[in-house]
Structure formats: structure tokens, C-alpha cells
């Protein structure tokens, strides 16, 4: 049973389990299940057994979705703060305010014409490096590519630019996690990017 469950688990981790109703598990089977990472549910009451399995599936799916969602590029709209240009180039360092969505390190950035201006290299809040800046945050960012005053300007509004495959995944699977604010920002990003690349996210 353990070997069979382990084989099934390779294709579907939620079906590659063992439900043991009213039986005991032999020590060698327990050891093999542990080695092969096969989940075993033991219970003398069938209702409890099924409920424990269903609860586990729900919890595991939620954890997997959270992990996948957090790894995706996030839609974000932000503004360069006037009077907070700390360095104009190589790298450009300046203050921004996150208007909507979430700003992440390594995010590709475009302007209102849909042109890519660079990538967020680092985000700092009160002198500490952070991975993500939430809506309403005012933080400092660094970008290696643009020159302030040539490629980007004080007061300018910018967007992050998620890869097309991730946009489709966000729309199809994670609309609820994005919320109304995130979804609206993502729609704006698609519209803006199509000025430069008409087939973006079709």
C-alpha cells in the first residue's frame, strides 16, 4: 500500500495517501511511509478519518497556493515622490509611494507609455532593506538602468510589469487573493503595456 501510494503521490500528492480505517500499521510500513513521505491517516471512526483527510487537503492546498502566489510578480502602481531624489543614476535612488498593489524587489517597471524603464533593485524602509512594500507605503528604491530627469521624472507614475504567463495565472487563479485593488491595477497594467506591445497578455 505504501509503495502504491508513493507512486500515485508522484502524480497527485493529494491522492497518494493512505486512509487506514480501524487497523494498525506495521512498524516497517510506518518506516517506509516516512521515507517515501506518504501521508497516513489512521482512525477507528470512518467519519473522523474522512474529515481529517479533507481538512488536510484543504490546509495543504491553501499553503501551496499561498506559496505559488507569493512567488508571482505582483501588480503595482507607484509614484516617484517629488523632492526625494537621493541619486540620479547608477543606481538611481529615490523615494516612492505605493498607490495600489504591492511593490516587490526585482519587479520590472514601465512608464505610462508602456515602455520598460528598468528593474527594482532594492527597497528600503527607514534604512532597512525589505522584500515587499504594501499599498500606502513610502519607501526608497534603487534602479540601475534609468537616469532621473531623462528616463524617469519626479512625480511620475510607474507600473510594475509582470511576465505574460504570470498575468494569465493571476487572472485565472488568484483574482480573489489580489482583491479589487490588485485586479484593477492589473487591468491598468495590461492596458498601458498594450500601447507598446499590443498582444501583451492575449
Summarize the structure.
By secondary structure, the protein is an alpha+beta fold.
State the main characteristics.
six-stranded antiparallel beta barrel; alpha+beta; elongated; 202 residues; 11 strands; 31% strand; two-stranded parallel ribbon
Task: Summarize the structure in words.
α4 packs antiparallel against α5 (175-193). Helices cover 37% and strands 31% of the residues. By secondary structure, the chain is an alpha+beta fold. The longest helix is centred in the N-terminal third of the chain and has 26 residues, at 46-71. A hairpin with a 5-residue loop joins β6 (108-110) and β7.
Strand adjacency order, main sheet? 3-4-10-7-6-11
Beta-strand proportion: 25-35%
- Uncertain regions: pLDDT < 50 for 5+ in a row? none
List SSEs in N-to-C order: HEHEHEEEEEEEEEHH
Shape: elongated
- Tally of strands: 11
| Head-to-tail CA distance between termini | 46 Å
Q: What is the CA-based Rg, rounded?
A: 24 Å
Helix content: 25-40%
The average pLDDT score comes to 94
Helix vs. strand class: alpha+beta
Quickly count the helices: 5
Largest sheet: 6 strands, antiparallel, barrel
Topology, please?
Elements (H helix, E strand, L loop, with lengths): L1 H10 L5 E5 L5 H10 L2 E5 L2 H26 L4 E12 L4 E10 L1 E2 L3 E3 L5 E10 L2 E3 L1 E2 L4 E6 L13 E4 L3 H10 L1 H19 L9
Parallel strand pairs: 1-2
Antiparallel strand pairs: 3-4, 3-11, 4-10, 5-9, 6-7, 6-11, 7-8, 7-10
Helix pairs in contact: 4-5
Amino acid at each position: 500500500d505504501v509503495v502504491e501510494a508513493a507512486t500515485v503521490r508522484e502524480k497527485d500528492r493529494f491522492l497518494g495517501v493512505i486512509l487506514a480505517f480501524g487497523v494498525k500499521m506495521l512498524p516497517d510500513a510506518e518506516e517506509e511511509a516516512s521515507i517515501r513521505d506518504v501521508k497516513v491517516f489512521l482512525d477507528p471512526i470512518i467519519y473522523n478519518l474522512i474529515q481529517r483527510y479533507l481538512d488536510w487537503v484543504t490546509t495543504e492546498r491553501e499553503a501551496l497556493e499561498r506559496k505559488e502566489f507569493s512567488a508571482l510578480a505582483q501588480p503595482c502602481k507607484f509614484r516617484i515622490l517629488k523632492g526625494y531624489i537621493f541619486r540620479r543614476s547608477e543606481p538611481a535612488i529615490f523615494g516612492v509611494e505605493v498607490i495600489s498593489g504591492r511593490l516587490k524587489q526585482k519587479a520590472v517597471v514601465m512608464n505610462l507609455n508602456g515602455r520598460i524603464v528598468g528593474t527594482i533593485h532594492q527597497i528600503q524602509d527607514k534604512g532597512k532593506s525589505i522584500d515587499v512594500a504594501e499599498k500606502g507605503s513610502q519607501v526608497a528604491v534603487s534602479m540601475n538602468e534609468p537616469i532621473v530627469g531623462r528616463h524617469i521624472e519626479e512625480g511620475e507614475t510607474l507600473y510594475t510589469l509582470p511576465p505574460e504567463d504570470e498575468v494569465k495565472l493571476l487572472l485565472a487563479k488568484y483574482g480573489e487573493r489580489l482583491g479589487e485593488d490588485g485586479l484593477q491595477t492589473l487591468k491598468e497594467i495590461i492596458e498601458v503595456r498594450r500601447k507598446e506591445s499590443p498582444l501583451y497578455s492575449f
